[in-house]
Amino acid sequence: MRDLMAITQRPDVISLAGGQPDTSTFPPESYAALMGRIAAESTARALQYGPTDGMAAVKDCIVEVMAREDMRVDPDDVLVTTGGQQVIDLMCKTFVDPGDVIVAEAPTYPGAVPSFAAYQADVVQVAMDADGMRIDELEDLLDRLEREGRRPKFVYTVPSFQNPAGVTMALERRRRLVAIAHERELLVLEDNPYSLLRYEGDPVPTLQSLDGGNFVVYLGTFSKILSAGIRLGWAVAPAPIIEKMNLGKQGVDLCSSSMTQLFVAEYFREGRWMEYVASLRELYRRRRDAMLDALAEHFPREAEWTYPQGGMFLWATLPDYIDTTDLLARALQEKVAFVPGRAAYLDGRGGSSMRLNFSGVGEDDIREGIRRIGKVVREQVGLYDTLTGAAQAATEPAPAPEDTAEVLHLPRREPGKRDARRGA
Amino acid sequence: MRDLMAITQRPDVISLAGGQPDTSTFPPESYAALMGRIAAESTARALQYGPTDGMAAVKDCIVEVMAREDMRVDPDDVLVTTGGQQVIDLMCKTFVDPGDVIVAEAPTYPGAVPSFAAYQADVVQVAMDADGMRIDELEDLLDRLEREGRRPKFVYTVPSFQNPAGVTMALERRRRLVAIAHERELLVLEDNPYSLLRYEGDPVPTLQSLDGGNFVVYLGTFSKILSAGIRLGWAVAPAPIIEKMNLGKQGVDLCSSSMTQLFVAEYFREGRWMEYVASLRELYRRRRDAMLDALAEHFPREAEWTYPQGGMFLWATLPDYIDTTDLLARALQEKVAFVPGRAAYLDGRGGSSMRLNFSGVGEDDIREGIRRIGKVVREQVGLYDTLTGAAQAATEPAPAPEDTAEVLHLPRREPGKRDARRGA
Fold first, then answer.
1. Residue A324 near residue A340 (C-beta atoms within 8 A)
2. Using the 8-state DSSP alphabet, how is residue A107 labeled?
3. pTM: predicted TM-score of the whole model, two decimal places
4. Do B39 and A21 touch (CB under 8 A)?
5. Who among B23, B47, B231 is closest to A256 (CB)?
């Protein structure tokens, strides 16, 4: 991931690898005006340490964001963190000893993998389909672990527009997951950076709102609705957990940046943050559509991919004889990057899949980037066909999806225009 | 510490507890101008993720600061971190498993205590005197640990104007410590936030410069020379260690704030950062003198304290029948705060000592704060004298310093005006 992040900085590479929001739409004159007001009123505060749990004014902004998710949150139950990533780290710091079990989705957020690994957690991943985590498989897993005398420290999920898969957990599954958490007194970490970035369909309640804040720890962030460069996220959790995470945060970085916290507070005071989110939604919806169109045009018929109703990512799966880690090296020669699927697993699976980001670059670059990836994929398919013999390939059926069942398959992809070319 | 930090936010309390720089001297018009330039040139970058290891422009600033410490640093050996605190966390994350030994000074930086505790380190503390860590005691300890088959993961030291004790490690001891590190292939974490804040005496080389970057990991920060609210520090270390810490940082917070990094880069471009540091030096020197004078005036003759040549703190020790944790509760009623000595130990020692900060508030508040603490200390001394009997106290000698040898004693306090009243 380190090299990948460095590559995303290179101007000649089209990166579909990162999780970047597009920050070019934020007006520089607003930025200057905001900062001018902070300078006039609070320079000394901006440059000073703040309270470990965050500034009260920022907690008020967070309560406002949560209200847009139909959540009523008490500021005392909020911990301001250095990005949403810090919530994952603090959850592990608070709860995980080496060898402890964390349950995650398969695939899971690639950025959580080094966090979990640093705490030497035993991460068990549960399959997903187009409706998100398979709760029936989760229950089987929990039963099995219980028989082994092992109790997961928490279930980690990105229920809306999942990173990396792009799928959303259906309401019924959410209710069931929350019920399981209550029945088994099991913590759930709901990582929810994207749900205000919905491009179609009806909103689904958060796990935290269904749970009432008993067993669900909620992770939110300003990264995707305002700025990733301010490094501000938050946790919402019952007071005893917030207290433990607060203690952990003291040891980790004392407090989050006062300078960037004042920026958020001043920005929200203008009262137009939802307009900006609406503009991002419109921008990213068009980019998603551009990516779906380009995939249909440039990827071979052997490939499949998910249909995200929001967020920033989709997940494409190639024939299992293609290794996307190897493919990336070839793609970089063509000046295009993606995240190889293996980064989203802790056990080496995902080798034929890739995560594609559609928020970070413009539509033209998306089309060109997908064209380039499509080119190297077709090369690999062609090479395979040559090696195995075109004649044999023509007479034998292609491997069924079940043969590569370790990665997410989505036969229930939404029908319609963006899919139409796939049957052609 | 959490409650203490909250208390420092209360305007009616004189806090000598925090580690705050005085940020009120930074000109708001400079802040606005800097931000205006960032807005014009780099709004999108300020709001975006950056590379995990930090922006190249910030590394250049760090190289410049290091040059002022007579250190020649390669930007590739630098990791930009979210405050210096994160270096401590990442060192533990990289090297410490539960039960591993870390060697620290006695007393040690109170903010390192929750970091070490979170990794379940076994922290062994080595005594200090006016010349810093007792290297002879360190060698005895290392020999003892070796016999037990235990190898410390690193030695943690704040060699210059130590937090909390205010003392500075003498050059001979620095050379010896570096030699020991080489002989025993032992890592040293040099935490050096204050050394540019020297008010008198000659600079002493950093451990890192004496070592040449082989066994010393250097921790630096902008917190004390520019701003704590930007949450930016750095590590300088050999490449393999930087790589491991970089991986840890990915899991912890992905990257440090782009917004605050651009602030630093733009600020250094003005070329006047050393002038600002010089103004802080002058300000803090006067405050240190005010505190030393006030201590001589208001503390009872049974108390003693260190004489810092720089930095932000001194360490006062009261008769051993006074518990400074209890005393703090009484002091807060008088609207004044300090850090009880026990916060600087992991084993309950330090109960009669306190850390006093002289950088965060003005001279008048320092004098008034010390007067208030002196008042509650005198109450305790009076109460003790009454309970034990004034007659007995008059005929028996006071306990010798050796009787409370668990805490730092400094018979070698600098002579001169600020001490003169103590004999009166």
1. yes
2. S
3. 0.92
4. no
5. B231
